[in-house]
Write a structure and sequence with these properties.
Mean pLDDT: 94
Distance between the termini: 37 Å
Low-confidence stretches: none
Structural class: alpha/beta
Largest sheet: 4 strands, mixed
Strand content: 15-25%
Order of helices and strands: EHEHEHEH
Oligomer: single chain
Number of strands: 4
Shape: globular
Number of helices: 4
Length: about 120
Amino acid sequence: MAKVLLFNITGDKQKKLRFLCMQYGITVLEGRGEDCSKPLGTLLGRAGFSAAPGLDAPFSEEMLVLDGLRSDQFHGLLNGMQMLQAPVTYKAVTTDYNLSWTPTRLLRELMAEHEAMQNR
């Protein structure tokens, strides 16, 4: 099942993303501050991940986590975000490797990659 996990995306941008996800049959989940210490796999309802919270702090940056999207859903969502002017700087697709990470750890990785690309 295709899912999108939103962190700190509110207002008009959230409405636009929800609309796009509905068009492409993507379930929208919202991450909250207390979720920042839980594995992404747990937050996305995947089996085999511990729900025991860690010590990661909440963050204020917008982040979008894509899980299980088909190619048409992935490209449709990203193209739609561009067309509707609903940018999210920090976006990630789940992998077997990062499903055990917390949202805070994923965001740190995305921020480091973003900075590295900006400094090229």
